[in-house]
Amino acid sequence: MTRTVRGAKVLITGAAGGLGRMFAERAVAEGAASVVLWDVDPAALSRAVGELGAISRGRTRVQSFVVDLGDLGAIAKTAQRVRRELGNPDVLINNAGIVRGNGYFWQTDNGDDTRPTIQVNALAPMYVAREFLPGMIANAFRPARIVNLASAAGTIGNPRMAVYAASKAALIAWSDSLRLELEQADHRNVTVTTVTPSYIATGMFAGARGPALAPVLAPEHVVDRVWAAMLAGRPLVELPGSVRLSRVLRALLPTRVFDRLVGDGFGVYRSMERFTGRR
């Protein structure tokens, strides 16, 4: 699987629109055997299946499942259906994510904002991966891939997105630990790629401003970079390169110096002031 997903079974969460839909299009274009779309929006899923089916012209089986990733029990039930109807996926792209609110932490509603954000962004990828990992590991002679879409917000604190940043920090820590566990257990047919992009122009972060050296990313660029890394089994994708720079500076500089130089000077800490999100 170093060059293509041709003949592979691909499962994508949050696949009805945005990056998830674009990943699905890429899989269909490369001749995947099946592309499984998970999303909470039944109408958008139906449109995606119809349009992707037209593109594939019968070469790829495109199937959708309506699933709320905030319902951890629904993940297990839907995974059972996938295994029964299509078999275990070879490629899992944990793409789904949500962001809630635009206030300081104490101004948000813990029940409406905190719980679903942690469940969808952090817990759901773990539960989804746990469902399919045994099958990926057992098929030792076939390369398998797991992609976890995290965020640069998980590498650096940022005002007005405390819960979102916490959820992505948890996802990053789990994702890289899973990578190391698979290597340590010599299950090297399964590779994990963690992705930490800055803001992407999909509408999810509408109103947010890209800090200095980190302009809002074009979705097509993100998909190209992530797809290439996934096929090659690379462990980490940081977009843009300034995400790595900020991570290095955070480790080297005293906290208050970093706050002034990067947080305030580069505008990172002001980037969410005009956030509106999807309407």
Classified by CATH, the class is Alpha Beta
Order of helices and strands: EHEHEHEHEHEHEHH
Looking at the structure, the CATH topology is Rossmann fold
What kind of sheet is the major sheet?
7 strands, parallel
First-last Cα distance = 38 Å
Number of strands: 7
Overall helicity: 40-55%
Specify the CATH homologous superfamily.
Answer: NAD(P)-binding Rossmann-like Domain
- In total, how many domains does the architecture comprise? 1
Class from secondary-structure proportions: alpha/beta
Mean pLDDT over all positions: 94
Q: Low-confidence parts, pLDDT < 50 over ≥5 residues?
A: none
Q: Percent of residues in beta strands?
A: 5-15%
What is the spatial order of strands in the main beta sheet?
Answer: 3-2-1-4-5-6-7
Count of DSSP-assigned helices: 8
Protein name: SDR family NAD(P)-dependent oxidoreductase
InterPro entries: NAD(P)-bd_dom_sf, Sc_DH/Rdtase_CS, SDR_fam
Keywords: Oxidoreductase
Pfam family, one: adh_short
Properties at a glance:
7 strands, 279 residues, Rossmann fold, globular
